[in-house]
Amino acid sequence: GNSVTQMEGPVTLSEEAFLTINCTYTATGYPSLFWYVQYPGEGLQLLLKATKADDKGSNKGFEATYRKETTSFHLEKGSVQVSDSAVYFCALVNKFYFGSGTKLNVKP
Amino acid sequence: EAQVTQNPRYLITVTGKKLTVTCSQNMNHEYMSWYRQDPGLGLRQIYYSMNVEVTDKGDVPEGYKVSRKEKRNFPLILESPSPNQTSLYFCASSIRGGGVSTDTQYFGPGTRLTVL
Questions:
Q1: pLDDT the model gives residue A95
Q2: Nearest Cβ partner of A94 from B37, B90, B99?
Q3: What are the tens digits of pLDDT across the range B70-105?
Q4: Secondary structure class of A33 (helix, strand, coil)
Q5: CB contact under 8 A, B98 and A46
Q6: Does residue A32 belong to the interface with chain B, where contact is any CB pair within 8 Å?
Q7: CA distance B4 to chain A (A)
Q8: pLDDT tens by residue, B38-80
Q9: What is the mean pLDDT of residues A91-98?
Q10: Do A32 and B102 touch (CB under 8 A)?
């Protein structure tokens, strides 16, 4: 079946640190992969997506590369800010499967 | 402004008292969906609708009903709520769903439900 596994949080970093949030998936076919972000008190918003193998999605300094050989879509950012504190969800879409979410806390 | 709206945003009720959470989108999207978000479990899909009068069960449909009489509205109905339905609920929509794998989902702001 289809599933998404992402690293458990919370992840606590200092401002300007490098961020990686791991996401791996199992799926039939060739799904699109998404990262959504949920800021406190809000709904989920699309952060970035990739629709085929080796595609790189990027937005707001975040990047993720669709790696079919390792079935991964890890989220990275070179220098996090306090404003990046949120919960991040990895998702695969052929029928919208979400990971359990990783909470990121960035301290000034 | 393109958006998905949900009402109410917060609701405290008692076991067995029927309630409805409304969801409306103004983007003419065909696909709409309901999720519940629980700590450690992420988002789990309750029901989804591919178009008007077409609804189907998601992963956790027990205790919920939905209807899709109009394209813009997708209410979630709890006929007899129980404490295990205490959760944060999100409605979402996308242009299309199912096999169209590139569509982005747009989420409502969430409804926090407490069943005593």
A1: 62
A2: B99
A3: 999 999 999 999 999 999 999 999 887 655 555 788
A4: strand
A5: no
A6: yes
A7: 10
A8: 988 888 999 999 889 989 998 899 999 999 999 999 999 999 9
A9: 74
A10: yes
DSSP per residue, chain B: ---EEEE-SEEEE-TT--EEEEEEESS--SEEEEEEEETTTEEEEEEEEEETTEEEE-S--TT-EE--SSSSB--EEESS--GGG-EEEEEEEESS-TT-TTPPPEE---EEEEE-
pLDDT of residue A94: 59
SS3 A84: helix
Residue A79: helix, strand or coil by DSSP?
coil
Best interface-test mutation with A: which of B56, B101, B112 has the largest number of A CBs within 10 A?
A: B101
Asked whether the beta carbons of A25 and A5 are under 8 A apart, the reply is yes
Residue of A nearest to B40 (CA): A100
